[in-house]
Amino acid sequence: MTDVAPRLAALAERLLEEPLPVRIRAWDGSEAGPPGAPALRIRHRRALRRVLWSPGELGLARAWVAGELDVDGDLYGLLAQLAPLIWEKSEDSHARQRVTALVRDPDVRVAVRELLSLGGPLPPPAPPREERRRRFGVRHTPGRDRQAVRHHYDVGNDFYELVLGPSMVYSCAYWEPGNEGRTPSLEEAQHAKLDLVCRKLALTPGSRLLDVGCGWGSLVLHAAREYGVSAVGITLSHEQATYARKRVAEEGLADRVEIRVQDYRDVADGPYEAIASIGMAEHVGRERYLEYASGLYSLLKSGGRLLNHQIARRPMRDESAYQVDDFIEAYVFPDGELAPLARTAGALEEAGFEVRDVESLREHYALTLRAWVDNLEGAFARAAALTSPGRARVWRLYMAASALAFERNRIGVNQILAVRTPVSGESGLPLRTREWLGG
Prior knowledge:
Domain Polyketide synthase-like methyltransferase: 159-422
Radius of gyration: 24 Å
Number of domains: 2
InterPro entries: CFA/CMAS, CMAS, MeTfrase_dom, SAM-dependent_MTases_sf
CATH class of the largest domain: Alpha Beta
Helix content: 40-55%
CATH topology of the largest domain: Rossmann fold
CATH architecture of the largest domain: 3-Layer(aba) Sandwich
Order of helices and strands: HEEEHHEHHHHHHEHEHEEHEHHEHHHE
Structural class: alpha/beta
CATH superfamily of the largest domain: Vaccinia Virus protein VP39
Pfam family, one: CMAS
Protein name: Cyclopropane-fatty-acyl-phospholipid synthase
Family: Belongs to the CFA/CMAS family.
Shape: elongated
Strand order of the largest sheet: 7-6-5-8-9-11-10
Strand content: 15-25%
């Protein structure tokens, strides 16, 4: 039998009401779809079982993690073709009504039964346990947050060195044009981002900086080395803390930089002149966000600055309908939540901050993610050996899909500079607020 791919393509086109934009290559050697198009390879019939058992993104993700689905050729090309089907179609009411009608269509039910016969009627085996989230306790309690953070970050410092490069910065870089239009390297772009944060916070020798979610210590090291500050970095990841402490010792900065394994809710040694929170607030959760903002406000001295660097999603007409992406929730950021920019700024203001500047770095994150994917793809076998094949596949899909989401304005990332403005109203910022740009 060599007709699996044509049968799958025919069913997909009927559901979509348009030609299939990608080519399908099935385990039986059959192919279907436009010649020369990016190809989705179905390596094993279990992939169908996973999709039928868990329709939607989660079933596809499980098949991808297990290695039963793969891409022949350009991953970005395939995702770009599928993106309108996954994103736009899922939000189109006519498309949803069409799918509902098709489910009632006797011919479609026959086709689904045929797919069941191809994939097998039994539930598919679970993906490797280490790739899936573990859920214990109430969301966004300290214990549950520790579990979520360690699922994502404690996968091996060697793995992150391979993906992130020498900077060990896991947030979007700042891609300033180089001399004569030269594109900077990832390392140069991350250095530029760290320096931009320090300039926005107006760091000066002897001032105290708190880095909430300090990762592998790159910002506190840069701030201590280049700006002479006394810095505290906190993380929930023991692996990150061990790595950061080693870097601090090697640079001879132990007298000015402290790395703690600590929850942001437990920091009580303020006041600080400046606080940076870069790529951390996505883990806080909607029900805890005002508590987070108020806690940071209480740790700042009067006139102190907060730099909140956070991924944002587009707002919805009905915000109560927001749901975390199944793939991200299950395999990447357990309990992570994105909020629209206005909600984040509003919570900061409600906590007492004066929001003074907002800068979008959306395109910068797309460039950063593509650089990380290049690093991963260039040493994929080693990445799989350092973690597991499934985890390496998760990161490849997650980062490539995220790059497209930033490029297509599905999500963004913003740096919000906020001030604990004193009663006198003197914010400490000049009339030309963006003095960090120079010139």
